[in-house]
Amino acid sequence: MPRQLKKVFIFLDTDKHASSFDILTIIDTFPDAAILKYESVTVEDAEKIVYDAMFPRGPEGAKQTKIFINGHNSERVNEVLEKIRECMFPPFELAIIVDPRGAYTTAAAAVAKTLEFSLKKGWGNLEEKAVTVLAGTGPVGQTAVELYASEKANVVVTSRSLERASSVATKINKKYEREKVRGVEAQTSEEIGKAIEDADIALSAGAAGVQILPLETLKKYGRNCKIVADINAIPPFGVEGLKSESDGNEILLDIFGIGALAIGKLKNKLEVELIKRAAEEPKGVFDYKIAYEAARKAIFKKFKEEKSFEVEPEKYWLPY
Ligand SMILES: NC(=O)c1ccc[n+]([C@@H]2O[C@H](COP(=O)([O-])OP(=O)(O)OC[C@H]3O[C@@H](n4cnc5c(N)ncnc54)[C@H](OP(=O)(O)O)[C@@H]3O)[C@@H](O)[C@H]2O)c1
Fold it and tell me: Is 102 in the pocket of ligand 1 (CB under 6 A)?
């Protein structure tokens, strides 16, 4: 009789306390799975933990053993990812989920919500749209900037420091080999206003509980803005006057808002999707690209089913 192999998630958190949010999400997705949790994980720790997990269950067991890498510092998370990938070789390859403190699934959800709303309104996809990601230097903001750039939008990323904004722009332009992202210093209301002056879409990606875009600034400078989104769910919200549950409500004449809770709902679905996909596949990395691709597919499927989409959705498909 073949051995019954339990699904096991090895949860590696580079932070001091492992994220209960993600562990609970795994439990609710796979109640029968086991979870092994490690905290304050360094690159060296990760190597040892993964080598230890690769062999005891043999190649078949490796297929049922999954890794979830988490942590607030996305650079450290990616260093751990690289080390783990170096350790693995056929047939001992484990599927790996990466979502640093929810940044990847949150960014994928935020970009997808703006894409969906734009298509719904008949404004087309994101290609050549002018997008401003306010305070886009954190893990969520940087991932959102990259996803917009991958959609061929023209992106402005702001920071209180020109150096930090330019560093994000340079990194992403280099990766995509095109100059789609520009870094801008914006700290005062006027500077924030100037940064959104030409934007079709503005996404506020600032830290929790920090207002980035005052309503008066949006009124004065947001004449071209069609969509304003915010991922900060802790008051004061990132965009004044934009409620966190708003899902396309008009907040000023012809300016529609998408709030953090509306983005959060999709974010949670995308995280479950990443966990399920990693559970099904014997190997591979399940990160923001997979999350965004899943969101995009769901949007186009919905449009197709509702027949509310006059153009073939495939026309808008931009493979990575
Ligand atoms: N909805 C969800 O499901 C969900 C999930 C995860 C995260 N989030 C939210 O997403 C947002 C971004 O997360 P994150 O981890 O990427 O954020 P973060 O790294 O804490 O902050 C993002 C950026 O905000 C700017 N900032 C920090 N303090 C500021 C201040 N006092 N005034 C103006 N700008 C300030 C910083 O940019 P500069 O220093 O370069 O100016 C920083 O890089 C947070 O609000 C977080 O709560 C939401």
Answer: yes
Distance 280 CA to ligand 1 centre (A): 33
**CATH code of the domain containing 42:** 3.40.50.10280
**Cβ of 140 below 6 Å from ligand 1:** yes
pLDDT at 320 over 50: no
Q: Whose CA is nearest to atom 4 of ligand 1?
A: 106
Q: What is the mean pLDDT of residues 67-94?
A: 96
Q: Which atom of ligand 1 is nearest to the CA of 160?
A: 41
Q: State the distance from the centre of ligand 1 to the C-alpha of 70, rounded, in angstroms.
A: 17
One DSSP character per residue, 201-249 reads EEEE-PPTT---B-HHHHHHHGGG--EEEE---SSSPSBTT--TT-EEE
**Cα 10–66–3 angle (5° rounding)?**
105
What pLDDT is stored for residue 312 in this prediction? 53
For tokens 């209960």, the residue is 20
Query: Is residue 161 within 6 Å of ligand 1 at its C-beta?
Result: yes
pLDDT confidence of residue 33: 97
- Rounded CA separation 60/136 (Å): 42
120 burial (CB, 10 Å; 0-12 / 13-18 / 19+) is middle
Domain containing 56 equals: 8-102+267-297
Closest-CA residue, ligand 1 atom 38, reads 159
Q: How confident is the model at residue 319 (pLDDT cuts 50, 70, 90)?
A: very low
- This prediction's pTM: 0.95
Rounded Cα–Cα distance for residues 61 and 199 (Å): 50
In this structure, the answer to whether residues 45 and 150 fall within a common structural domain is no
Whole-number Å distance, alpha carbon 104 to ligand 1 midpoint, is 13
**Geometric angle at alpha carbon 268, from 276 and 204, rounded to 5°:** 135
Nearest CA to ligand 1 atom 47: 208
Q: Total structural domains in the chain?
A: 2
